């Protein structure tokens, strides 16, 4: 197994982002369109939060009331903002952190994704799926 491999080797650098002024319908569309589960919320290139699909589902009624989905989206957006739903005080990692260090953070903190930054600016994201795919390649 390769040791001391930087996380930049397995991170995704084509990151879908939102800002706190975007609405939750836009977030839901991005989750579906790109088949992703986590979206960093940015101000410029600085990470100010993280929105997960699970966060959205916690406040959404769309899964239980499919026939009224359009009306639910309107209600959802009039009641909640991204800033209210997102996780704040996000843990970020540097692109030079090792894969092992990131695995330890993900395991200890029970996160499923971490934004990767360089000099405070978002440059990527790493997920538990990225980590599992890396480990599978080792066997």
Automatic annotation (TrEMBL):
Transmembrane segments: none annotated. Pfam families: CBS. Residues 11-67, 86-139 form the CBS domain. Keywords: CBS domain. PROSITE patterns: CBS (PS51371). Coiled coil: none annotated. It comes from the Bacteria. PANTHER family: CBS DOMAIN-CONTAINING PROTEIN, CBS DOMAIN-CONTAINING PROTEIN CBSX3, MITOCHONDRIAL. This is CBS domain containing membrane protein.
């Amino acid at each position: 197994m390769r040791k001391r491999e930087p996380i930049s080797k397995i991170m995704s650098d084509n990151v879908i982002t939102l800002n706190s002024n975007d609405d939750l319908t836009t977030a839901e569309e991005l989750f579906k369109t790109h088949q992703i589960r986590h979206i960093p919320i940015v101000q410029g290139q600085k990470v100010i939060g993280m929105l997960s699909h699970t966060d959205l589902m916690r406040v959404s009624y769309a899964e239980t009331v499919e026939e009224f989905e359009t009306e639910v989206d309107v209600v959802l957006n009039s009641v909640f903002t991204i800033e209210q739903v997102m996780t704040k005080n996000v843990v970020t990692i540097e692109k030079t952190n090792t894969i092992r260090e990131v695995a330890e953070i993900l395991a200890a903190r029970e996160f499923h994704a971490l934004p990767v930054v360089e000099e405070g600016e978002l440059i990527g994201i790493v997920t538990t799926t990225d980590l599992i795919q890396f480990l599978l390649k080792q066997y």
